[in-house]
Amino acid sequence: MAFTIAIDGPAAAGKGTISKAVAAHYGFAHLDTGLLYRAVGKQVLTGTAAIEAAQNLRAEDLQADDLRTPEVAQAASKVAVIPEVRAALVDFQRVFARRSGGAVLDGRDIGTVICPDAEAKLFVTASAEIRADRRFRELVANGLRVDFETVLDDVRQRDARDMGRKDAPLRPADDAIQIDTSELSIDEAIATAIREIDARRAG
Ligand code: CDP
Ligand code: CDP
User: Which parts of the sequence bind ATP (predicted)?
Assistant: First the structure.
């Protein structure tokens, strides 16, 4: 049976952490759709045209190990403004979402554009400072040399670009359940998400 869980929200809100745990809990597959935009952004940094990169994207491009840098994140949010780039990535996401056995997709426009009929939708948020602090710690733990102000700037710039674009802007779907993780531990955020999804599954 296909069951789609859409998890959207701004940068470093905890979407990926919640998505992975939710997918493991229900035995569903998980797609981090940010990786699609990051993979396109990375190719643009090395000279490929954005639309061409999106149209020729291969599943193995999502496995590249240097997609998590702030430079690639910025490039991703710039290519994500281009309607032809977004259009080229729609089918892959929709096919993934409707696989039998269930799917969790996290991103910016899953509940609004990619899967408007998703059986459960979450919108995960936290304050920009808390999100930047989490991302900063994560990057440092992964050996990247960054300073906090740069990470906070990156988060704010991407938030503004993602919310301000015309095509598929970041916003909660009307029927999304909002979870503010600012004051929640990872375990509390995951438990809250599962409780809300269980309520949808029962209903
Ligand atoms: O996917 P997204 O960019 O929304 O965020 P994430 O990669 O899941 O989380 C960003 C960082 O925040 C990770 O290092 C998480 O471990 C951490 N986090 C946290 O400290 N508390 C939470 N409630 C959720 C995530
Ligand atoms: O992990 P984090 O939340 O920092 O970023 P991400 O989810 O990997 O997304 C990187 C960028 O891709 C975002 O800033 C968006 O501009 C874009 N994106 C998008 O436009 N639509 C999606 N469904 C997912 C990501």
Answer: 9-17
